Structures are given as structure tokens and as C-alpha cells.
Amino acid sequence: MLIILAGLPGSGKTTLAKALARRLGAVHVRVDTIEQNIRNAGLEPGPAGYMAAYGVAEDNLALGHIVVADSVNSLTITRRAWRAVAERQGVPASEIHVTCSDKAEHRRRAETRVTDVPGLVKPDWAQTQARIFEEWDTKPLVVDTAGRSPEEIVIDLISELQIEEDYVASPEDQ
């Protein structure tokens, strides 16, 4: 299964992606990490970050792994590309739009979060608000992170996505 997360910076997407990947023993493919490493090599990422992420995801799906794709994914073209990765591997794709309905909380997160990717500069609140986020051409599952812990959301997602119990690690195993 390919679990495709999308959402504005500071919405809680990466926190949720990590918690979900940990709980499922899944592969976490994070575009921020790929793009920053391209910058660290002295290059501009452009579409290369997403293209590399699609390839890494596809390789891991081919090996039978669940993959959690973590990116802003704000454009129709990237969403279609993620779905094409799943289609080529013959696995289901679940699109999840991560939001934070509490604007004060979203702003606090955007302004105070610390990156765990060396060299990555996170967008500020103004840049986050100015981000183009195209309308969906599908109907994603919408997850609001305001006032909920990642653990609560992950439990709900596993149920909603109907992920078989065989894939779910117990909290003691994490």
C-alpha cells in the first residue's frame, strides 16, 4: 500500500507520517530530506526531489513494503504521479490531506518547529499561507491534527485505511 500524505507546512504531516511509518513498520519517504540532500550537493532540486521520491517509493513497494509518502504535495501533477507509482506496482493508494483547523496552532507550529534535516530552512508563516494548494481531483481522506495526538490519529487511520492487523506493530514493539 502507498499512503500519500499531503498538507501545508506545519499541519503535522511529517509528525503523523513518522508515527504511522513507525506503527506499521513502513518505509517513510520524505521529500524534504531528499530535496535538502540535493541542495547539499550544490544543486537545485526542482522536480528532482519528487522524482527521486517516486523512485524510492516504487522500489520499496516492489519489495512488498508499505510506503508512507510525506510531502506538501500541493499540485495535481504530483498527486497524479504518486498515484501512478502505486498503479505501476499494483498496490492501493490512499491519499490523506493533513490539515490543522486551529489557525493559531498552525501558525505556532510553523513559527516554532525545529528541523531534523540538517540545513533545511522551514518556510515561515507568511510563506506557508502564500503556498499554492490546488483543488483535489480525487476525494482524499481529510485528517485534522488540531487538538489530537499523532497516536490517536494513527489509530484512526489504521482503522479507516483497513490495514490488516498483520502489518500493525503493537505499541510495545515500537
Automatic annotation (TrEMBL):
It comes from the Bacteria. InterPro entries: P-loop_NTPase (IPR027417). SUPFAM superfamilies: P-loop containing nucleoside triphosphate hydrolases. This is AAA family ATPase. The lineage of its organism: Bacteria, Pseudomonadati, Pseudomonadota, Alphaproteobacteria, Hyphomicrobiales.
